[in-house]
């Protein structure tokens, strides 16, 4: 590929989101449009918990490799957003409020016993990607946050409208993300625009975002196959 200007690179990144972000996935459309039953929503929340719980570990692997205090301070904030600064705070704790509200036992959720195999493999692949790839690629892989406010707005409004078993309190995880995700994506996008200076680096950046979109898409593929089509694998959550 030829060298892109920063604006062209950003446009290419946004095009990946327009084509590949998981708001286009049939399972998300079913979730948003009220086409799932309570057990299927439980399965979604249970499996998504593993992704939420591993995000701080993913960020910690990158934090350890960042070369400056300025970058480490910026990335440390992401860990605090998810893990909180004391027990009962942060995004992971708020996600457990969601699974609590859906009637899932907290011990069972935290045990990870009911995960779909594809959930575990996909999330672990993402954590390993951030650990093993370049700092530039690792930061670029977080750029799905460019598109998350749209899916959050759809998800919250749709679930509140269609499901009588959720409430604004149940969905409390999502409210802070409406401000955290744009803040984080603004930083990551500026970093990528500044540091992807060769065609090879730009290709790496675009590939990293495609990979992350594939992780999120694969998780929904697995949920759709197991809990809509009815092919629940051995050992996974059975409603």
UniProtKB/TrEMBL annotation:
EC number of the protein: 1.3.3.11
Keywords in alphabetical order: Oxidoreductase, PQQ biosynthesis
GO molecular function: pyrroloquinoline-quinone synthase activity
Keyword Oxidoreductase (UniProt): yes
Classification via InterPro entries: Haem_Oase-like_multi-hlx, PqqC, PqqC-like, Thiaminase-2/PQQC
Protein's pathway: Cofactor biosynthesis; pyrroloquinoline quinone biosynthesis
Pfam families: TENA_THI-4 (PF03070)
Membrane keyword on record: no
Chain ranges of the Thiaminase-2/PQQC domain: 11-221
The protein's enzyme class: oxidoreductase
Reaction(s) the record says it catalyses: 6-(2-amino-2-carboxyethyl)-7,8-dioxo-1,2,3,4,7,8-hexahydroquinoline-2,4-dicarboxylate + 3 O2 = pyrroloquinoline quinone + 2 H2O2 + 2 H2O + H(+)
GO terms, biological process: pyrroloquinoline quinone biosynthetic process
Family under the similarity heading: Belongs to the PqqC family.
NCBIfam families the record matches: PQQ_syn_pqqC
HAMAP family: PQQ_syn_PqqC
Role of this protein: Ring cyclization and eight-electron oxidation of 3a-(2-amino-2-carboxyethyl)-4,5-dioxo-4,5,6,7,8,9-hexahydroquinoline-7,9-dicarboxylic-acid to PQQ.
Protein name as annotated: Pyrroloquinoline-quinone synthase
Species this chain originates from: Gluconobacter kanchanaburiensis NBRC 103587
């Amino acid at each position: 590929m030829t060298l892109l200007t920063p604006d062209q690179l950003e446009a290419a990144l946004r095009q990946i989101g327009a084509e590949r972000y998981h708001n286009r996935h049939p399972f998300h459309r079913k979730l948003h449009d009220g086409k799932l039953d309570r057990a299927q929503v439980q399965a979604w929340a249970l499996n998504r918990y593993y992704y939420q719980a591993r995000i701080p570990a993913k960020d910690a692997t990158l934090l350890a490799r960042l070369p400056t205090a300025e970058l480490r301070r910026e990335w440390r904030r992401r860990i605090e957003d998810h893990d909180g600064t004391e027990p009962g705070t942060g995004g992971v704790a708020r996600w457990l409020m969601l699974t609590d509200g859906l009637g899932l036992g907290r011990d069972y959720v935290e045990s990870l016993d009911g995960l779909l195999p594809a959930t575990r493999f996909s999330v672990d692949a993402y954590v390993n990607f951030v650990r093993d790839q370049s700092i530039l690629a690792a930061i670029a892989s977080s750029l799905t946050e460019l598109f998350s406010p749209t899916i959050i707005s759809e998800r919250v409004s749709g679930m509140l409208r269609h499901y009588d078993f959720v409430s604004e309190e149940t969905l409390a995880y999502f409210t802070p993300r409406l401000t955290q995700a744009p803040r984080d994506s603004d930083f990551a996008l500026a970093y990528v625009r500044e540091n992807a200076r060769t065609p090879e680096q730009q290709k790496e950046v675009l590939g990293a975002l495609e990979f992350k979109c594939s992780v999120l898409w694969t998780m929904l593929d697995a949920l759709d196959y197991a809990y809509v089509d009815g092919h629940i694998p051995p050992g996974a959550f059975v409603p």
